[in-house]
């Protein structure tokens, strides 16, 4: 995959439990078509940039704590029509299937 890593912090309303795993969101901007499904579903985490492509609301430095896996963020990844979004666990770096 030839993407650029991007992360943001969920602030859009639904509460998460402390048990929610921390994740890093990866946006493959070469694959993104700017449908806006992610930004509409998880507006606290993802937005469309000036170029019309998905981007995180807030950049985090490498090694950041990530953000909790919320139902909105999982849905945003699931709804992407070109599968340009991926989630990775902060603890182990493994890819997370939000629907599994």
Structure characterization notes:
This protein is of the alpha+beta class. The protein contains 2 helices and 7 strands. It has helices at 37-41, 71-79; strands at residues 4-5, 22-27, 46-48, 54-56, 67-68, 85-89, 95-96. Strands 1, 2, 5, 6 and 7 form a 5-stranded antiparallel β-sheet that branches. The protein has a two-stranded antiparallel sheet with strand order 3-4. β3 and β4 form a beta hairpin. The chain is globular, with a radius of gyration of 12 Å. It starts with a strand and ends with a strand.
For the structure shown, list the relevant keywords:
7 strands; alpha+beta; 2 helices; about 25% strand; two-stranded antiparallel ribbon; disordered N terminus
Strand and helix map with partners:
Elements: E1 4-5, E2 22-27, H1 37-41, E3 46-48, E4 54-56, E5 67-68, H2 71-79, E6 85-89, E7 95-96
The biggest beta sheet is recorded as: 5 strands, antiparallel
User: Tally the helices: what do you get?
Assistant: 2
Shape: globular
What percent strand? 15-25%
Detail the poorly predicted runs.
Answer: 1-17
Helix content: 10-25%
Please tell me the overall pLDDT: 78
């Amino acid at each position: 995959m030839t993407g650029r890593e991007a992360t943001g912090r969920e602030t859009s309303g639904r509460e998460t439990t402390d048990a929610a795993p921390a994740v890093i969101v990866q946006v493959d901007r070469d694959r993104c078509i700017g449908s806006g499904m992610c930004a509409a579903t998880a507006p606290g985490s993802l937005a469309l940039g000036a170029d019309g492509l998905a981007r995180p609301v807030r950049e985090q430095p490498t090694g950041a704590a990530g953000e909790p896996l919320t139902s909105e963020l999982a849905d945003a990844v699931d709804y992407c029509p070109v599968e340009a979004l991926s989630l990775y666990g902060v603890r182990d770096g493994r890819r997370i299937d939000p629907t599994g």
